[in-house]
Amino acid sequence: MEIRFIKKSEWEQLRNFNADQYRPDHILTNKQYYDWQFDNVFNEQKDSYTTLGLFSKGELIGTFGMFTAPYNCFGRQVTANCLANLIIKKDLRSLGYGYRLLERASNFNDLAIDHTINQQAWPMFIKSGWVGENLKRFIYIFNLEAMRKLIINDDTRQLSASPTNPVIVRHWRWEPVEKFNENFDIFWEKVKNRYPITIKRSSQYLNWRYVDTNLMKYQIFAAVGSDGISGFAVFRTENVYRDNQAIGVKIGRLVDFVADAAAERFILGKVIEYGRQSGWDGLDYFFSGQNRIESLEDLGFFDGDSAGYASIPILFHPISTKRMHLNFAIKLINPELTKQPADKLYNWYTTKSDGDQDRPY
Q: What is the extent of the structural domain holding 107?
């Protein structure tokens, strides 16, 4: 057995493996997507993807995608392994090969993080020293009747439409962003202490994640005042499909949101305003940590885990209830990090888009 990074020249073998283990039209068979995700701006290997492959006599029998990225950890920059898509050949999944890939991926850099770990793999992560939980989901409802269409065989009487609250303007301008520049790097250095542990939201990362991709169309806006940027939001529109047909329901997905304390409500209010003008029926936001909950509730968001709202699906293209939560888990690799409460999940800020789940299909 050999574990190593998969060479770019092995793409056909990798694509065929993903087609067999997932399905022929899965996103991981799309070379444009794969190059963007696993040969990204953080990849220093010219000849390989940042994906670990498990090989047996030259045959690819398992993969674990990852990329290395800088993280903010209580004001200090550390290096994280951002993991995704652990998969073992179907007839070999009870032989411990997944554990071997997980151990290799968890043994370099300062920390590791993974998102949306399936329930079959979750016990393996926990036994290997990982800690995790579900991301929080908050939901804003513009059109109550449309949102009720998304819930099948459940009581929708507990759902309510969100209130319409005026946006507090103060001294900020709401400006569209085409490209993240050095002003966002300056802003990040000012605001990063609000987010004890999170990926470093540098212009390099933000442009790769939200601008330099042809597969997803994001709307990006920033709150700008006389003293510079006070926050930004990244969101997109998703049409709901059932049986390959759009059902006329539009959902806004808020996938990233960073702000100083003063501008938090202003930015959320402007996202709501955009959604109302764009004909969204609902809006959701997945995240971890304690910041912004009060602001979300003040502006009319509902806790997605509360009665009624927990029945709203999270998959819309097509609509599905096979997964109703998004989780994340972390493991500290550098023992120096244990001197700070880095293993306390309330200190972490991660969102749906920090993993690999905000993707075209």
A: 2-134
